[in-house]
Design goal:
Number of helices: 7
Distance between the termini: 56 Å
Mean pLDDT: 89
CATH topology: Glutaredoxin
Structural class: alpha+beta
Largest sheet: 4 strands, mixed
Shape: globular
Strand order of the largest sheet: 2-1-3-4
CATH class: Alpha Beta
Low-confidence stretches: 1-5, 10-20
CATH superfamily: Glutaredoxin
Helix content: 40-55%
Radius of gyration: 20 Å
Number of strands: 6
Length: 195
């Protein structure tokens, strides 16, 4: 009987921890809140879809958070990160309804991440990370590394970042070009070393 009683506090603690685990907010609610905030700040909403396992998503976040780049994004966008496509052990980290919002913004289940879109404060889709290349099917820019991906990303910024200056566009492109060179060099070094 004593051994059963000693497990009781453990069970109570485990149940309490489980009850405290919070489900992330629904993707539609997160987007609606961002649209409301963007309306009063005279910005558009930049919606980024990501997952914890996604290296390219981390590259996107790292670039966007650079001290020389972050103010540009903050000035122009209410930024929303929605978690989708998590591995089985992290499914509870996903924003419920995230895949539905992805589809509403022009993505598809197999589009890959990061996927991003720019919408107005009224929810109108302005652009997304899909682009056409030489008559091929639409492709997702993902983290912009290739020249056509950087070009598409810059077109999105040029047309849909409401307060961006020509100087900021030039600086952002220079950052993306430099990061792309670094990434390609690192990939070549890994290939050369057999990893």
């Amino acid at each position: 009987m004593k051994s059963k009683i000693s497990f009781l506090p453990i069970l109570i603690l485990a149940a309490g921890a489980y009850a405290r685990a919070e489900t992330p907010p629904a993707a539609a609610t997160v987007l609606a809140n961002a649209e409301n905030a963007a309306r009063s700040a005279h910005k558009n909403v930049l919606v980024l879809f990501h997952a914890s396992w996604c290296g390219w998503c981390k590259q996107m976040e790292r670039t966007m958070n650079r001290p020389d780049v972050k103010p540009i994004f903050d000035k122009n966008f209410q930024i929303v990160w929605l978690t989708i496509l998590e591995n089985k052990d992290k499914k509870t980290d996903e924003n419920p309804g995230g895949m539905d919002v992805l589809k509403q913004l022009g993505g598809a289940e197999n589009v890959g991440i990061p996927f991003f879109a720019i919408v107005t404060p009224d929810g109108k889709l302005l652009s997304n990370s899909m682009y056409k290349e030489n008559g091929k099917a639409d492709q997702n820019t993902g983290y912009p590394v290739e020249p056509q991906e950087i070009s598409h990303f810059m077109k999105m910024m040029s047309s849909d970042a409401p307060h961006i200056s020509q100087g900021e566009l030039k600086m952002l492109k220079a950052v993306l070009d430099a990061r792309a060179t670094e990434i390609r060099a690192a990939q070549k070094a890994r290939q050369a070393s057999g990893h």
